[in-house]
Amino acid sequence: MAAPENLDLLRMYESVVDEFQLKIIAKRKDYQTFDEVMEYLVDLLFNRDAVLRQHAHKRLTRAVMFYMYWNCDIGEVGDAAAEQALSS
Fold it and tell me: Is 16 helix (H, G, I), strand (E, B) or coil?
């Protein structure tokens, strides 16, 4: 690891990813697109944490969620292809 002092942050990040993956698996069938699943997760976060509901933190929260998706830490690789097929 390039920066051992970040190990605790990495473990927290991985823990959040694991929690989100479980929530995604549990709710994926209830939504037609992964965008709807992402909105479900964001709403869940905002509803349980007043700090995240603050305007400045909302943008940061969405950015972190997008990073998790972009980095393929959450969601399935097939989600993007499935969504593209549905919209075609």
Answer: helix
> Which one-letter DSSP state was computed for residue 28?
G
Task: Return the structure tokens found at 21.
Answer: 């993956």
pLDDT at 18: 94
Report which of 66, 76, 74, 78 is spatially closest to residue 15, judged by C-alpha positions: 74
Place of tokens 């989100």: 20
Domain ranges of the chain: 31-88
**27 three-class SS:** helix
* Burial of residue 38 (number of CB atoms within 10 Å: 0-12, 13-18, 19+): buried
Q: What is the pTM of this model?
A: 0.72
Residue 53 Cα distances to 17, 42, 60, 61, angstroms: 20, 10, 11, 9
Return d(Cα 20, Cα 16) in angstroms, integer: 6
Does 65 have pLDDT greater than 90? yes
